[in-house]
UniProtKB/TrEMBL annotation, chain A:
GO molecular function: DNA binding; sigma factor activity
Domain RNA polymerase sigma factor 70 region 4 type positions: 124-175
Matches recorded under NCBIfam families: sigma70-ECF
UniProt keyword terms in alphabetical order: DNA-binding, Sigma factor, Transcription, Transcription regulation
Protein known as: RNA polymerase ECF-type sigma factor
Record-annotated RNA polymerase sigma-70 region domain positions: 14-75
One Pfam family matching this protein: Sigma70_r2
High-level lineage: unclassified sequences, metagenomes, ecological metagenomes
Family: Belongs to the sigma-70 factor family. ECF subfamily.
GO biological process entries: DNA-templated transcription initiation
Species for this entry: hydrothermal vent metagenome
Amino acid sequence: MSNHQINPNKWIDLYSDYLFNYTITRVKDRDTAQDLVQDTFFAGLKSMKNFKGEASERTWLISILKRKIIDHYRKINSKKGKAEVRINFNSDTDNEGDWIEQRVADPFDKTAENTLENTELGLAIHNCMSKLPEKQAQIFKMKTILGYETETICNELNITASNLWVIIHRARTALASCLEKNWF
Amino acid sequence: MFISCNEANHNCDKSQYNEASLWEKIKLNIHLIYCKACRKYSKNNSKLTQVINNSELEYLKTSEKDALKKNFEEELSKNN
């Protein structure tokens, strides 16, 4: 019956980045996001026997994570004092923004649509990245998204700089063509 | 002055991370004048950089991941 197997030993390697990325677009705080992801893995471990194999592991974990995120917001909203909402025209003590014109929304600022698009884009990139060979994906992430120095990566992974650039080049070419198919 | 396509691509990749020197950028641009294939690659490459910057993709740092792994393994061994 079950089409999908569950194997918690590989969860961290396979899904932690995806879950983290999913969380960070929703809670905007690295530490909280990390805690939520960890809670999700623990909860998944506890209820492993309930896994029916109807969905893939990742979907299953995401559904747990969703509950965790909702719980998180519930918790911070129920804290004493937070329930009291005060609305002031001018809540800051500094004098900036005394004029109402300065307080209206900036049309060139990010809109909700924009943010949504970015979230989806992030997941599209993630899907493309998960198709890359593991080593390429790892190096590309370190270099491009975490912004490590070339030297740091070379030392950590024990490769030469030219080796690194070849890997980066391959990853970029593959990613560009994958995104071209799925996004642009 | 005139470089191969391989070297041009290498310089192009480097410049995406702001690691190309001025001379490398000049050589790349001279190459791009007469090489259509590299122009295309270079265009796609900067598009990719832009897209990734826009997406605000975030990942766990290696140290954070290791910490997560350690906690998880402890929990795993408790359960078995």
